[in-house]
Amino acid sequence: MGTERQPRGPHDVFAWIDDSTRRRDRAGLTRRLQVRGARPQAIDFGGNDYLGLTRHPDVVRAVADAALTWGAGSTGSRLATGTTELHAELERELAEFAGAEAALVFSSGYLANLGAVTVLARPGSLIASDAFNHASLIDGYRLSGADVVDTEHGAPRALERVLAAREQHRAVAVTESVFSVDGDLVDLRAVLDVCRRHGAGLLVDDAHGFGVVGERGEGAVAAAGLAGRPDVVTTLTLSKSLGAQGGAVIGPRRVIEHVMNTARSFLFDTGLAPAAAAGALAALRVLRDEPDRPARTRAVAVALAERLAAAGLPATEAQAAVVSVRGPSAAQTAQWAQDCLADGLKVACFRPPSVPDRFSRIRLTSRADLTDAEIDRAIRVVLEHSPW
Ligand code: PMP
Q1: What are the backbone dihedrals phi and psi of residue 177, each rounded to the nearest 5 degrees, phi first?
Q2: What residues does each domain of the chain span?
Q3: What pLDDT is attached to residue 199?
Q4: How far apart are CA 180 and CA 25, in angstroms?
Q5: Is it true that domain 40-53+292-384 has CATH number 3.30.43.10?
Q6: Which numbered atom of ligand 1 lies nearest the CA of 208?
Q7: pLDDT, tens digit, for every residue of 209-242?
Q8: Cβ atoms within 10 Å, residue 241
Q9: Domains 40-53+292-384 and 57-289 share a fold
Q10: Rounded distance, CA 11 to CA 15, Å?
Q11: What is the pLDDT of residue 282?
């Protein structure tokens, strides 16, 4: 406290920020935007375009046509002027593909999570949350006013203990299907069994499962046989496997109607841009017509994970599209990612507070359209710059 920088004048009210900046710098946690140009300078193993659809000709054409037809924006909130025919079509086809009764499209996955959480849990209910859940879910808990208990990551038994011991009448368990940092897949059937034994609802964020997991890429929820259940609600993003932008809540019609009428992140937000809705819809149709894409994405991830582990690196197993490798420290991990980039390979870098534990990682994401030569090069570059 004594060393806090003193304001230089009456309006220097944000002087305190300099101290937190210095602390962040010292811990090796300062982030910088990396601007990319239209021509790729590096092979992309860092994005979430899992099916390689963001530049697919059908998708790009649909986006361009929609912009020409509808303009740049949706002009209002979904309940006012912000619902076009494209939104309605996308909702119908998303629900059908994932085997759910209904879907509701939001302008991002983050807002879909905020919306779903805040209307399924209220003050006096319990949220049993997997300890590694995404920030957008956690922010939803805070807004909901519900009681929250973190449960051990990926452990249905720990969830069972929490649900069994609760005093709250209503409860909802919340988990991701595939966890974004390490790419591990939860046993959703076991989680639902526990929920059912204890009268709890289940909310699954399938952001990293939809389009990748399941024989047709129908997502982790459908692949586990949970689609269409009256007690299961799923959230999605349209920005990963569908290569566009936006999010969705899918599930029983009564829940979707409830979300549409009460979720503030839906009611008070301008509807998703029509061009983004058109891009997601076109991508969904490519996914439906080309069921080999998800299989290729998974096979590339398995190859990455196995080869990195065989070379002695602490790589995670690939259960979907994500493979992570721990680094020795935050600073060394950031340097590792930077050295890879300088050598023509883009990988993601996760450091606190974006990791569920204290370990920093680089993360490689697979894509259906990566070539074997690109995979070989990625492995070579990651190993060459490894700090281990
Ligand atoms: N959930 C998870 C698990 C995610 O990884 C993300 C994106 N990082 C989101 C939700 C948010 O989705 P969006 O980027 O579409 O807002």
Answers
A1: -90, -55
A2: 40-53+292-384, 57-289
A3: 98
A4: 25
A5: no
A6: 3
A7: 999 999 999 999 999 999 999 999 999 999 999 9
A8: 35
A9: no
A10: 9
A11: 98
Tell me what pLDDT residue 3 has: 66
Determine which residue's CA is closest to atom 1 belonging to ligand 1: 207
Question: Which residue out of 50, 94, 136 has the highest number of ligand 1 atoms within 8 Å of its CB and is therefore the one to mutate?
Answer: 136
Q: Is 241 in the pocket of ligand 1 (CB under 6 A)?
A: no
Active site residue 346: no
pLDDT tens track for 16-70: 999 999 999 988 788 888 888 888 889 999 999 999 999 999 999 999 999 999 9
201-205 and 171-176 strand pairing: parallel
Verify whether residue 169 is a known catalytic residue. no
Beta strand 43-45 with 345-350 is parallel
In this structure, the residue with its CA closest to atom 14 of ligand 1 is 109
Q: Which atom of ligand 1 is the closest one to the Cα of 136?
A: 10
Cα pseudo-dihedral 175, 77, 244, 304, rounded to 10: -20
1 Cα to the center of ligand 1, angstroms: 36
Closest by CA position to 63, among listed 283, 248, 256? 283
Alpha-carbon distances, residue 227 vs 97, 120, 216, 251, 384 (angstroms):
10, 18, 14, 8, 44
User: Phi/psi of residue 243, each to 5°?
Assistant: 65, 15
339 CA distance to ligand 1 centroid (A)?
A: 27
Annotated active-site residue 240? The verdict is yes
How big is the chain by its Cα radius of gyration, in Å?
22
Identify residue 171 by its one-letter amino acid code. A
Task: Name the region of 115 (left: φ>0; alpha: ψ -120 to 50; beta: rest).
Answer: alpha
The token duo for 328 is 């020795």
* Domain 57-289, CATH among 3.40.50.80, 1.20.120.1200, 3.90.1280.10, 3.40.640.10: 3.40.640.10
- Flag residues of the chain having pLDDT under 50: 1
